[in-house]
Protein: D-aminopeptidase
Amino acid sequence: MSPHSTSLRSLGIRIGELASGPANSIADVPGVAVGHVTLSDGAVQTGVTAVRFHDGNPFRDKLPAAAHVLNGFGKSIGLVQVEELGTLETPVVLTNTLSVGTAAAALVRHMLETTPEIGDTTGTVNPVVMECNDGAWLNDIRGLHVQESHVRAALDAAATVFEQGNVGAGTGMSCYGLAGGIGSASRVVRVSRRDYTLGVLTLCNMGRLADLRIDGRAVGPAIAERIAAETADAEKGSIIVLIATDAPLDARQLRRVATRAGAGIVRTGSHLGSGSGDIALAVSTAEPIPHAPKNTKVMTRSVLHEDAIDRVFRATIEASEEAILRALLAARPRVGKQGRTRRALNEFADLLAL
Structure:
């Protein structure tokens, strides 16, 4: 969190009923790490966020994964193969809309360097890059400021402790007419006397200020009135939701989990507008799938029984809602291209506290 941010807990707000993990972030899931590169200088307000989902080689040991498109006004790459095969074989890179190609090329080069057999003695690799459009207000997106070196640096910077708010890919994002960006939260789920962790990371660039709700309270109109802000007629932003869990789930179950992110988004006030790109990707770290099994082509795998998955659904909804709010509260006021500004939610703490 930003050192200048206000926390939900300090406002007397607790989202949901499940306990959070130790850091209340996606990195509470063992093996998950997040890295940022922030580009913030005048009209340049953009960046890169990289998420690693385990400590090993993601191509050689793939993870069960699934994506769900709530509204498809987006330019992500790699989701077709995730949908078909149900696996993730690279880190996930987040950036702005027009930098998806650059990020994909950098991610491919990274995988080629770390996995010499790709494209030689085995098949090619499926890079996953997801985006939101920061060029609508703050960033000079036409300048194509994100370079491959920035993507590589974000991958190298991945750690279990990371900033939230308008940093990395979230630098120039707007959320509910305020400064947006990266948010994260986690929940702990107990199944058969064992605890599993589910973590969420959001890239928030959606919503109309008048629609903003915090834990069910309509706070957006009061903020809009105070700053005399005009509310957009239509919701044209986007949100990316990354979900990681160490619970044993297969791709079919993960798709069910990914759909529940929509409930968390809607609880903050978004109606998933026609012009919005709203996509969730869910990954299980429990049992990696070997790219080249040594002794058998038949695998025996563990999965949660469907009777236990409701708890995972609840964790997804709670963590998605809280991650969005944490992004808003961690973000700082931002000035971007043409002197355009975004105020920060934490400036209005008096309107938020219970």
